[in-house]
Amino acid sequence: METRLIATITRLFGAMQGNRPTSRKKPTLQDLLAIRQALLDCLADCDSATAQRLRHKIGQTQTPQDLWLLRNDAYQVVSQRHNQTVAAERINALIVQFQGWIDAKQLVRIK
Length: 111
Fold this sequence. Notes:
Helix 5 packs antiparallel against helix 6. The termini are far apart. About 5% of the residues have low confidence. The protein is about 65% helix and about 0% strand. It is mainly alpha-helical.
């Protein structure tokens, strides 16, 4: 009985590990620059102090995942300068830059 239980638990853990996402390739500097530039372009006509701080954060960020997390800040800056519709359009246009770097389930459009 104990042996069967151990075998079942081992199978379950093995199945769970098989469902883990495979590791992604490491982004090159060029990959990061392209994502950063797209994020900066969406803020191009925003000149508030908050926008300047966000530009600095974008320049310091080292991973696509961390850049993805800054999109909410970008949405806020753009919506303050324009409106929520314009902000959503700009942020949704960034999704293509993050494909392959962010889990597809997280690449959700803003409505």
